[in-house]
Design brief:
- With about 675 residues, this protein is α/β, with parallel strands linked by helices.
- It has four domains: about 1-180, no CATH class; about 185-220; about 230-390, Alpha-Beta Plaits; about 410-664, Alpha-Beta Barrel (TIM Barrel), CATH 3.20.20.
- It has 22 helices and 20 strands.
- Helix 2 packs antiparallel against helix 3 (about 70-80) and helix 11 (about 390-410) crosses helix 12 (about 450-460).
- The longest helix has about 45 residues, at about 20-65.
- Bound molecules: ligand C2E and magnesium ion (2 copies).
- One magnesium ion (MG) binds near residues 434, 492, 524 and 554.
Length: about 675
């Protein structure tokens, strides 16, 4: 159990300074001094004013004596003034009476001696007294003592408080040090504590800053800076309770069309730049839509969810029609190609549309259902936008059920290969076969690969299924060999199998365990796997090829072949996709494409296999154009192991018989 740290009770810097004992004493002393200064000043100015007033009064008396010519009167006035002796100076600076030296001693006061409105002399007097204490001494003493007492109490209280704080900090430090397996540092001095406190404040500030940065990171996508999945989810949870049938909320789960291919072409860095441009364009289009006011929408929000998945949220829509108008406008905005370093790249937008509250009232459901609607569209090989319907949910649940069933089927070993023969056009004999996975349930019903292979690829179960099919196919081929039937077997390999780091070892291990000579194994791989990362592909396949394993490009012509890469990758076989073979009967471009592939195969010295041959006309066309092998229902469907062996034996015997008859 971790012990919770009590927060260190370190007082604020200001209070530490104010409550420092020395500071308290200084404040108190200053207060006392200020008090004394004020009272002394008050006394002094009062005595000064008194002296001035007295001097003026004497000046008036002297003026009247002078006016009366009574110099004796003047003398009497001087005598009465006594120690505060006075001197009378005429306007010309002559001393008339009193003590002339008085003027040289200390501060003087003066008053004009006025007669008949005329200054007849100036009366100087020594200031009566410098300071006459009027405040009682005992009061001053009392105040001083009180001030000192206050300072002492302050100091005492502060030191107590400081001692408590230090003790708390030391306790915390000890605890931290103990937790960090540090024997503990001593933080004795006040300065050290101050440093510690400053450090703590700084750390706290940077932690707060980092928390803000982290919060921003946690809620924004690093590539586009748009709000991310977490931000959108939070927002939806907040806004969804307000949605009702009058004011719908719409969520669109959007994915970019052709983005994967663009990345294969551009690489990761420019791929991110392309994502940022696509996000900008979506944002601008949404702003335009809400700005124009043609579609009634209260609020629009765009979020970057993951890779090239985006989420658009619209509130205040009046109908589904408005939502599809927005989708159409967004799609139209992507017609114009993007310009990336001089390269023109055209992307597209596809999406699943979900309305709240009718399709769901929880963020999680809306996102899942939007994704389901988009997947259903993509599964049909289409692009565009599709509204979610409960039927799609059932289909998705069906897929989930299929996945669960597949796991169980793997445990019960219900997957096995069936073998479809390949006929050599040159000899007319069965010279190979393709292993095709079949799933036969315990109750005898079967599931077609078209239904389960895509789900197996999505769920990752294809790796295990593929490995089982590989093993059983090699086992079967070894069995035929033992029976004198040398027929190589071609096994389909999924992209995720090739991507596994142990793929090569799995293949070589299987060959070693079953004892099949490598030249009797052919791996069928789709073009996209080979072209997406040619270097890696070559590094995986090269050792297998060196052993004698053959390599075939499956469904050739359906992908976006990069012929220069393909020709470098050292394939042995081109398998022409069955859609072109089916097209041979029509008047479209299929015959020209097939001819072109055959010519290319021939010039590269490769074997060419036409798959899906159903009619003798198709077979004839292909044979005449130099196709080397044919595969299709015209000859046989995929057969189980024993059926295949019987078929191959009887077919080849018939061919040999026919040849002999021809020769005879
Ligand atoms: P594919 O590799 O192109 O296999 C050929 C498909 O064409 C097979 O479908 C086969 O039954 C079908 N076919 C053969 N001849 C004809 C014909 O004359 N007419 C028509 N209309 N179809 C014909 P199947 O067995 O349903 O397999 C579908 C796809 O499933 C295969 O296409 C392959 O891509 C995949 N698949 C099958 N088995 C495996 C496997 O063991 N591993 C992996 N990874 N994929 C597999
Ligand atoms: Mg195949
Ligand atoms: Mg194929």
């Amino acid at each position: 159990m971790t012990e919770k740290l009590a927060p260190a009770r370190v007082t604020s810097r200001m209070s530490l300074v104010l409550f420092h004992p020395l500071m308290s004493v200084a404040i108190s002393v200053t207060l006392v001094a200020a008090f004394l200064a004020v009272s002394i000043g008050a006394n002094f100015s009062r005595s000064h004013t008194d002296s001035q007033r007295q001097t003026e009064m004497i000046a008036r008396m002297v003026a009247s004596d002078l006016a009366a010519g009574d110099m004796a009167g003047v003398e009497r006035v001087f005598e009465a003034a006594g120690q505060d002796a006075l001197a009378l100076v005429s306007p010309k600076g002559r001393h008339l009476a009193g003590e002339p030296e008085l003027l040289d001693r200390g501060r003087t006061l003066f008053a004009p001696v006025i007669h008949d409105g005329r200054e007849i002399a100036k009366l100087h007097s020594h200031e009566l007294s410098a300071f006459r204490m009027q405040t009682p001494v005992w009061l001053v003493a009392l105040i001083c003592v009180s001030a000192i007492l206050v300072a002492a109490v302050f100091g005492y209280l502060y030191s107590q408080r400081l001692v408590r704080d230090i003790a708390a900090i030391e306790q915390d430090i000890d605890r931290v040090a103990h937790q960090a397996r540090d024997p503990g540092r001593q933080f004795g001095s006040f300065a050290e504590l101050q440093r510690l406190r400053l450090h703590t404040v700084r750390t706290l500030r940077s932690l707060l800053r980092e928390r803000d940065d982290l919060r921003s990171l946690a809620y924004h996508h690093p590539v586009t800076g748009l709000p991310n999945l977490a931000a959108l989810q939070e927002y939806l949870e907040r806004i969804l309770p307000e949605a009702d049938e009058h004011s719908s909320v719409c969520f669109m789960f959007i994915n970019l069309d052709r983005f994967g291919r663009a990345c294969e072409m551009l690489g990761a860095g420019p791929g991110n730049a392309l994502l940022a441009k696509a996000a900008e364009r979506m944002k601008a289009e949404l702003a335009k839509i809400s700005g124009q006011g043609l579609i009634h929408v209260e609020e629009t929000r765009l979020a970057h969810l993951h890779s090239d998945d985006f989420g658009v949220f619209l509130s205040g829509l009046s109908s589904r029609k408005d939502a599809s108008l927005v989708a159409r406008a967004m799609r139209a905005a992507f017609v114009k190609p993007f310009n990336l370093d001089g390269r023109r790249i055209t992307l597209g937008l596809s999406g699943g549309i979900v309305m709240a509250p009718e399709d769901g009232d929880r963020a999680e459901d809306l996102m899942r259902r939007g994704r389901i609607a988009l997947s259903s569209l993509r599964d049909e090989g289409r692009t565009g936008f599709r509204f979610f319907t409960p039927r799609l949910d059932r289909v998705a649940k069906g897929r989930l059920q299929l996945e669960t069933d597949m796991r169980r089927a793997l445990a019960r070993d219900e997957f096995e290969p069936f073998f479809q023969p390949k006929i050599d056009f040159r000899t007319g004999r069965v010279s190979g076969c393709e292993a095709l996975a079949r799933w036969t349930r315990k109750d005898g019903s079967s599931v077609s690969p078209g239904a389960f292979i895509p789900v197996a690829e999505e769920s990752g179960l294809i790796d295990e299924i593929g490995q089982r099919i590989l093993y059983r196919s090699c086992e079967a081929a070894v069995g035929w060999l033992r029976e004198g039937l040398s027929i190589p077997v071609a096994v389909n390999v999924s992209p995720s199998q090739v991507a596994r780091p142990d793929f090569r070892d799995l293949v070589t291990g299987t060959l070693a365990q079953t004892g099949l000579p490598p030249k009797f194994l052919e791996l069928e791989i789709t073009e996209s796997v080979a072209v997406s990362d040619p270097k890696k592909f070559e590094s995986v396949m090269h050792p297998l090829k060196a052993m004698g394993v053959r390599l075939a490009i499956d469904d050739f012509g359906t992908g976006h072949s990069n012929l220069s890469i393909l020709s470098r990758l050292n394939f042995d076989v081109f398998k022409i996709d069955r859609q072109f073979i089916a097209g041979l009967d029509g008047h479209d471009s299929a015959p020209a494409i097939v001819e072109m592939i055959l010519a290319m195969g021939e010039s590269l010295g490769l074997e060419t296999v036409a798959e899906g041959i159903e009619t003798p006309e198709q077979a004839r066309f292909l044979r005449r154009r130099g196709c080397t092998l044919g595969q299709g229902f015209l000859y046989a469907r995929a057969l189980c192991e024993s059926e295949f062996r019987d078929f191959a034996e009887s077919w080849n015997q018939r061919r040999s018989g026919a040849r002999r008859a021809q020769a005879g």
